[in-house]
Design goal:
With about 220 residues, the chain is of the alpha+beta class. It has one domain: Alpha-Beta Plaits (2-Layer Sandwich), CATH 3.30.70. Helices cover about 20% and strands about 30% of the residues. It is built from four helices and ten strands. The strands form two sheets. An eight-stranded antiparallel barrel has the order 1-3-2-6-9-5-10-4, surrounded by four helices. Strand 7 and strand 8 form a beta hairpin. The protein is globular.
Length: about 220
């Protein structure tokens, strides 16, 4: 089998933390040799204490996106988990998803190994579901997803950095009147939840929205209780 060089494999590290913590996450990344990142603002949607899957009881959240090679990503997530005490309720969560290709970086993404369940970072296999819909529809996406087995989500309001600019996520332009819903689910529930969202929000019809799924490589701070 061809040996994989983790320095040539890149992950997108995603942190969902309390408002004001995003800059501390970026600072930690810089200390570990990871520069750059993007902070977005969102709100948690978990209302039922029994379903605190995302530990998002507070409404104001920051979502931090940082790209790094895998050799740094694993250490980064563990350091953040320990330093910011993600094991405690409402402190936040972090996870990484595999990137298949990168444009604009002077490296080639290597072959990605099949993920295995091991340690606290891979308690189960997870997928992240991104749903982009018209503003005001995010809550419905969350309700539909929860009915299908999800345990919470984060709604991100899309806004460009300039008056005539659009926000971008994974190189997809997002109009200012859109909402991005981020849902972290167990792999076995992904198809059921996506089908339910597609049917109830009519995502397959033009202009109704966009939905895509990314495999989660590592996840820290999740609490099923």
């Amino acid at each position: 089998m061809k040996e994989t060089n983790e320095n040539l494999i890149y992950d997108l590290n995603i942190f969902i933390v309390k408002a004001g913590m995003g800059s501390k996450i970026l600072a930690l990344g810089k200390e570990l040799g990871i520069s750059g990142g993007t902070i977005l603002y969102g709100r948690g949607t978990v209302r039922n204490s029994i379903l605190k899957f995302f530990e998002l009881a507070e409404s104001s959240k920051e979502i931090v996106f940082i790209i790094s090679n895998r050799s740094l990503a694993d250490n980064f997530l563990r350091e953040a988990y320990d330093k910011f005490k993600f094991n405690k309720p409402n402190n936040g969560i972090c996870f990484s998803i595999c990137i298949c290709n990168i444009i604009g970086m002077q490296s080639t993404v290597g072959e990605v190994k099949e993920l295995e369940e091991q340690g606290e970072g891979n308690m189960n296999l997870y997928n992240s579901i991104f749903v982009i819909v018209d503003r005001g529809k995010g809550e419905k996406v969350v309700d539909v997803a929860n009915e299908a087995g999800a345990r919470g989500a984060t709604i991100i309001n899309a806004r460009g950095s300039g008056i005539h600019e659009k926000a971008k996520i994974f190189a997809i332009e997002i109009e200012p009147e859109k909402e991005i819903v981020l849902i972290l689910v167990e792999e076995k529930l992904t198809d059921k939840i996506c089908t339910s969202i597609q049917e109830n929000l009519e995502i397959d019809k033009p202009g109704k929205g966009i939905m895509f799924v990314q495999k989660v490589a590592k996840a820290y701070g999740l609490n099923k209780n």
